[in-house]
Structure formats: structure tokens, C-alpha cells
Design brief:
The longest helix is centred in the middle third of the chain and has 31 residues. This protein folds into 2 domains: 179 residues, Growth Hormone, Chain: A (Up-down Bundle); 187 residues, Growth Hormone, Chain: A, CATH 1.20.1250. α14 packs antiparallel against α15. It contains 15 helices and no strands. 50% of the residues are buried. The protein is mostly helical and 398 residues long.
């Protein structure tokens, strides 16, 4: 019972950190007016600062994953929290654009270390409910992005210095760190056993260079599938269909609402009905069908259907479930799984904005076509993994 309560306490601290993680990812742009004045720059300069987040994340995600497997999860959760505090406090005293960029890299570093420590830790705390525990991360990420705009609006409306918010986030992390300190983490070699509860489920040896590589590539394709819709659906609806500007932007609200609902629905499904290995094929397949219908029926009504449908299928935790499958196949490389898969996931945030706009200028339908290709790629990769999964794992034991 003590072990169980400790697992819930660890999970509570991890989820609490993810609220701050999502806030940190958008806090620069949310407080862009204050930071522009402080740094003596414009919105382009603030964009340059914010780009440091992606650089920090890409550079350190893979390293963080390997080190997490070697030294355990708890140290890297703390390193991630410290990185956020360095940014929150450091930016308050910063008046140089390039120094601000370096500080923003600490957000990316914090993101990397927090992920490579927290995600394996969650599956190790709840080896029989790994899919549910991992998918729920999405709801806390959504919570942070939902809360921050209200905080920003309150500060602006009452002319309160933005620094008090950042100091408050730092205190939040310090308190959470103190609460986490006495907790003993489970072994980093804990196997994900599924609902049946058996840890001995291998019937042959998995291959990191084959099914492992397919899962790593899915880090890119599953992320790209929802990134394209998140970034480009309003533009497609406005320029390709002729929707009103305000109405087209509201599509993302429907998308976000559907994604939050999907998180809880998916968490229930992987706990009670379907194993993660089936979900990583089924959800991208549903996304592909939705996009195919959209490609041949560009109407305002269909845009709304796509916003809700893609929120339910593409943004409800497919990436997290893909990670769970990789951790099931490679229980001694859970940190490596997070590091490699999330590096490819981060890469999609760089590649997609470089490729899709150029194609969308020619024809907005090309953006949908690229998304369809990404979704179908996930299905194909998922099917390859499934065939190997059945050969190396006794599915009845997970």
C-alpha cells in the first residue's frame, strides 16, 4: 500500500510539472509586449528568442534519454525543474536579446530532461496501466495552455508586472520539488506488464534496428499529423474554402476541446478495451480517413468535422501510446525510447513549417495531402511494428 501511495505521489508531482512545462513553452509569446520593451526589440526579435526553446530541446533530448537510463529518473526530473527556474528568474534581469535566446534554450533543456525522466517514471510507477498514465500527460499539458492566457489577461488588465507571474511559477516548482524529495522511485528496469500483470512476456528478442526504428519514425509522423492541422486548418478553411477569418480561427477551439475529451476517452480505452499496440494503428487510420474525406470535400461543414475528428484521433495521445509500445518492447531502454522518439517529434515542429507553407501557396489542398501521407505512414509503420510485436511478445500477458 505504501508503494502504491508513493507511486501516486510521484505521479502527482510529475503531472503538476507538466502544467508548468506547457506554460513555459508559450510564456515568451504570451508576455511578448513586456519582453519586447525589456529587451528593446520587436515581435521578430521575440520570435528569435522563442526559437531557442526548440534548439535546446533538440540538442538535449537524446542525451537526456540515455543518461536517464544510466542514472535513474529522479535526478533528471529535478534537472528539468531547475532549468525552468533558471529561465523564469534569469529572464527578469535580462536586457540582451542573445542572452535571452540562451535562457530560452533552458526551457528546451528543461522540456527534454523532464520528459526523459518523467515519462519512463510514470510507466515504472504504473507498469500495469502504462498507457493510461502516459496519455493523461496530455490533459495536464492542455491545462497549462488553458490557464496561462487568463493569467496574462489579468496581469495586463490590472497593470501588474509580469515578473510576479514568473516568480510564482518558480515558487510552484520549488514546492513541488520539496514534495517530491522524500519519494523513492521504482526500479528503472521495471517492465510494462499490461493489465494482466505479468512481467515475463517475451517469446523472442526485439530488434532496435527494425521495430525500434519504425517506432522512432512514428515520433515524427504522429506529431506531424496533428501539427499540420493545428497550424494550417484555419488557413485552409479561410483561403481554400472561403470561411470567415474569425470562424476559421475558431476551428482550433473545437480541435482543442476535442483533444482534451479524447485524452480521457483514450485513457479509458487503453485501460479497459484495447491495448496500445492496436491504438497506434487504429487512431492514425481514422485520421487518414478523415483527411481523405476532407481532401475531396472542402466545405465549411467538413472543416468543422475535421477539426473535431482530428482532435479526437490525432491529438489524443497517439505519440504517448507509441512511446508505451516502444517501452514494452525495450524495457531496459525506456529513457532512450523517450529521447529518440521525442527528438523526431521535435524535428517535425521544425520541418513542417518549412515545407507545408511552400506547398500551401501553390494549393492549400497540398497541406491536407501531406497530412494524409503522414497519417498513412503512421499506419504502415504501426502495422510493421504489430507484425514484429506478435513475434516477440505474448500479447495475452500484457
Amino acid at each position: 500500500m505504501a508503494k502504491n501511495s508513493s507511486s501516486y505521489a510521484i505521479a502527482g508531482s510529475i503531472y503538476a510539472n507538466y502544467i508548468i512545462q506547457s506554460i513555459a513553452l508559450i510564456v515568451i509569446m504570451q508576455f511578448s509586449i513586456d519582453l519586447s520593451v525589456q529587451l528593446g526589440t520587436d515581435l521578430v526579435g521575440i520570435g528569435y528568442v522563442a526559437s531557442g526553446i526548440g534548439v535546446g530541446k533538440i540538442l538535449l533530448m537524446f542525451i537526456g534519454g540515455i543518461l536517464s537510463d544510466k542514472f535513474g529518473r529522479k535526478p533528471f526530473i529535478y534537472i528539468g525543474m531547475c532549468c525552468y527556474i533558471i529561465f523564469f528568474i534569469g529572464i527578469l534581469f535580462c536586457h540582451n536579446l542573445h542572452v535571452a535566446f540562451i535562457l530560452a534554450m533552458f526551457i528546451g533543456a528543461g522540456n527534454s530532461f523532464l520528459d526523459t525522466g518523467s515519462m519512463p517514471a510514470l510507466t515504472e510507477c504504473f507498469p500495469c496501466s502504462a498507457g493510461t498514465a502516459s496519455v493523461l500527460i496530455k490533459s495536464f499539458i492542455s491545462m497549462g495552455t488553458l490557464i496561462l492566457p487568463f493569467i496574462v489577461a489579468y496581469f495586463y488588465n490590472h497593470t501588474i508586472w509580469y515578473g510576479y507571474a514568473l516568480i510564482g511559477f518558480s515558487i510552484y516548482l520549488l514546492i513541488n520539488g520539496l514534495l517530491l524529495a522524500p519519494r523513492v522511485f521504482p526500479s528503472k528496469n521495471t517492465k510494462i506488464c499490461g493489465n494482466v500483470g505479468s512481467g515475463d512476456y517475451f517469446i523472442s528478442k526485439p530488434k532496435i534496428g527494425f521495430e525500434g526504428l519504425c517506432l522512432i519514425l512514428m515520433g515524427f509522423t504522429t506529431t506531424a499529423t496533428f501539427v499540420i492541422i493545428l497550424q494550417w486548418l484555419p488557413a485552409i478553411a479561410e483561403k481554400g474554402i472561403g470561411m470567415d477569418t474569425i470562424e476559421s480561427k475558431q476551428l482550433i477551439s473545437y480541435y482543442s476541446t476535442a483533444s482534451i475529451i479524447s485524452v480521457f476517452f483514450t485513457a479509458y480505452v487503453v485501460k479497459k478495451i484495447l491495448k496500445p499496440i492496436y491504438c497506434i494503428i487504429l487512431l492514425p487510420l481514422l485520421s487518414a480517413l478523415i483527411l481523405l474525406l476532407f481532401l475531396f470535400n472542402l466545405t465549411p461543414q467538413m472543416s468543422l468535422f475535421v477539426a473535431i475528428g482530428m482532435g479526437l484521433t490525432a491529438a489524443g495521445g497517439v505519440l504517448q501510446l507509441t512511446l508505451v509500445v516502444m517501452q514494452q518492447l525495450f524495457p531496459d531502454k525506456k529513457g532512450f525510447a523517450v529521447g529518440t522518439m521525442y527528438t523526431l517529434s521535435g524535428l517535425s515542429f521544425i520541418v513542417i513549417p518549412l515545407v507545408v507553407p511552400k506547398l500551401a501557396i501553390i494549393n492549400v489542398s497540398y497541406a491536407i495531402l501531406i497530412d494524409l501521407i503522414m497519417a498513412l505512414s503512421s499506419v504502415v509503420l504501426g502495422l510493421i511494428v504489430y507484425t514484429r510485436f506478435r513475434k516477440v511478445i505474448d500479447i495475452s500477458k500484457i
